[in-house]
């Protein structure tokens, strides 16, 4: 018996029970496809988070109110407020001004205090609730890596004169104006008419908030119209370079400790978070996410393998008599073993191959808003593991077939 | 495979049983070895009080030992082993076919002591030395006749072209040259059994071991299969038929009767060297044939 004949025999064996073979292959197929797709989803989600964070600008730092030092930023918010809640001083425009002083903070390039609110915008009867209406300085655009696609940014002059101008995000533009160009049009936001001077380029991104559904207007205009001239919600600081974020962070802490009158470095009432810290937190979360997805997929692959064992055991029982005949006419143990191993391996090989195809096709679609990015190793890995599973899980039934005593096998009805 | 030459001589001298076969035993050690040489063969199933003695007869009340079965079959002979169900003929057939091992006793097949062989060697012996024909045909399902007959050669490692040539020759010999592509479910019972015969003889085995080969066949197919077996034996192939039908036993040169696991009669119907009874005098054989509609029905009714 040469390998080709053994293979042919195995194909014949599988073809004898097509539905059963197909269902067993389906088990392996689903397992392999799940491994490929789920790992691609995990990978895709971490890629897109990385991309969107990098889009925000890696030089920028965010100062927000509340205790907790330089940890976690937005992700870690809300956890540690109780101890210093009474002494918390809000961030103000004066704080921002102090940070902009090049003498005390030489590593800071620009400072943009921002207030944000949510308002309904109306244009010619079309109404849309804007996720984020931000009042800030022109420096915000560079620090947050927001680029204007059409029109222009508003200027420092607009800020000084509290002009009612706004730069809107691409989602907001589409919602309100459709395909028409919004530049120069007047839109009513929360009862105040604003002139649209520019439209931001699409950032794209994941998460709960669409970064493109935004209206950015001069700080005093927004304060005047909506939030009042109280504290600002956060201060966006841009460091001189990516390497200067750490000294810039220290300078911010020193300056704000001065303006807030804090002596103890452990009792800060503000937080400075860099994109870098956000990035590392996010990638940790994503790694856990990917590992979990991979584990779920691996389990389904294992279940597929058990399916092979199960079906091969049934096959061996069904074909006991045939095994007896083969043994009676002189088939050595090794040939019987090879025949059934070839069958189970073929099951996993075909199932795994189709699983790879299904996985690669499946990862072309967006899944829960995530663009899957296939990890090449996962394709080879899943396929190899599937084939190994066929060999491993097939070896028990095959061994059982090979060890049957011919006389008992022949008597089997 | 080791040859049991020395042991064979010793076994011969011990064989002083009164019921031993009457024909002359070849005493010179370099003559052709007998195809089957069985000495004091015993087979029991179970242990202690529950033990069932399938072969070898009841124990001697004085010594507590069974006499065992002795059997010597020479090359070219055609032996029918007869007995009712439970007489131990199937057990004997399994042991002769190397499908089962005896509890005690010696078995030399074509000069080879089978007792000392491991599983792999036994499969080689079955492949090279024995051609099986079973009552229920036992063809491999879903396999065309040609592949079916090629199978033993494939296990023996014969090259594809040679295998094909020999398989076609064997199928032509049983008159199925035009049925090579048919699967078992597309063949009649008689045709299936003829495929099985072709499969059994394609390796040119030392003996053809047929267990109730006509038990599942109608009288016409029975005649067909038996005439093929007759011709095979006439061309020198050793044949052992296990049967309980007199009609089948008539074809044999020698009839061995088993009762309760013991040989009770051993009758020679034709000489070892000559053609089988059906071919030496066909007209006389046909005249004696109980082949009338009533007896054919009786034969079929008697088949289990």
From TrEMBL, chain A:
Q: From the Swiss-Prot or TrEMBL record, state where the protein is found.
A: Cell membrane
One example GO MF annotation: transmembrane transporter activity
What are the residue boundaries of the ABC3 transporter permease C-terminal domain, all occurrences included?
A: 295-404
Span-the-membrane segments of this chain are 21-42, 289-314, 335-358, 378-396
- Its membrane topology: Multi-pass membrane protein
Highest taxon, organism lineage: Bacteria
Give UniProt keywords alphabetically.
Cell membrane, Membrane, Transmembrane, Transmembrane helix
What range(s) does the MacB-like periplasmic core domain occupy?
21-254
GO cellular component terms, A-Z: plasma membrane
Signal peptide bounds: none
What family is it from? Belongs to the ABC-4 integral membrane protein family.
Spell out the protein name for this chain: ABC transport system permease protein
TrEMBL record, chain B:
**Pfam families, from UniProt?**
ABC_tran (PF00005)
**Segments of skewed composition (Pro residues):** 19-34
Kindly list the GO molecular function terms attached to this UniProt entry. Answer: ATP binding; ATP hydrolysis activity; transmembrane transporter activity
Q: Which InterPro entries match?
A: AAA+_ATPase (IPR003593), ABC_transporter-like_ATP-bd (IPR003439), ABC_transporter-like_CS (IPR017871), ABC_transpr_LolD-like (IPR015854), MacB-like_ATP-bd (IPR017911), P-loop_NTPase (IPR027417)
Give all residue intervals belonging to the ABC transporter domain. 36-285
**Where is region (Disordered) located?**
1-34, 269-304
Q: Name one GO cellular component term.
A: membrane protein complex
Q: Which PROSITE patterns match?
A: ABC_TRANSPORTER_1, ABC_TRANSPORTER_2
Record's keyword terms, sorted: ATP-binding, Nucleotide-binding, Transport
The UniProt entry, under PANTHER family, shows: ABC TRANSPORTER ABCH.1, IMPORT ATP-BINDING PROTEIN
State the name under which the record lists this protein.
ABC transport system ATP-binding protein
